[in-house]
Request: fold
Amino acid sequence: MGMMDPSMMAAWGMLGPDGQPVKAPITYSKCVLYPPNPSAPMPTTRERPPGCRTIFVGGLPENSDEEIIRDVFDKCGEIQTIRISKKNFCHIRYGAEFCVDNAIYLSGWRMRINNEADAPNTGRLHVDFAQARDDHYEWECNVRAQQREERHRVRVMEDMMRPPSPPPIPHFSDHEAHTVAEDIKKESAFSKSVEILLTWLERGECSKRNAPSFFTMIQAVNSHVRRLMGEQATHEAELQRMKEDYKSEVQTILTQCKAQVFQL
Reply:
């Protein structure tokens, strides 16, 4: 909620016997507002419409005009439009919603033009929320804009959390087959090349015409796998030999330690 104008804040005067602030009259250039009787019931208001920025002001003095109304209610916030009726009421549209709350505060106050108490120059204000199509339309636009922003934020977060998509597998061609056959021989590209070859086979792209190309690629994969298996067997044999050497060294150290203990 926005800040109330200092002149309206001054309406809360000294503290009463019960410790509650006592409302004081508010003086304007052409009128004075007197606070309602403390024992009088609180003015009632209708249900606040969504996005309400327009108020209804009834009970205006007969001699009131736009200048007087603007002088009073402009202190509540920036006024956009004032529509005055000949039946002692008007509608005021503000630039922000919090201004309406400031204006509702004046409901029940008595206005005296030039501080005169005769009937044409006095009236008890009734300030209430007003149903305005422009307010409701702008509120709906703001709600839709917020919903769009929320959907965009959710999509962005989902895109950030989604794992990256793998690159597409190219369709078979003589050029692609030659590239895959060469990549199969490379350690760094072997896995990707085998994936492409399996995808081509699953798609059914192997035919009588290109069967030799597929046979060449499969032979290359077989050779690479056999070489890897041979290297694996060599590494496993070397690892086993190292384990046996380690065990022998540990046994030798233990034997030497026991011999030292017996000598002591």
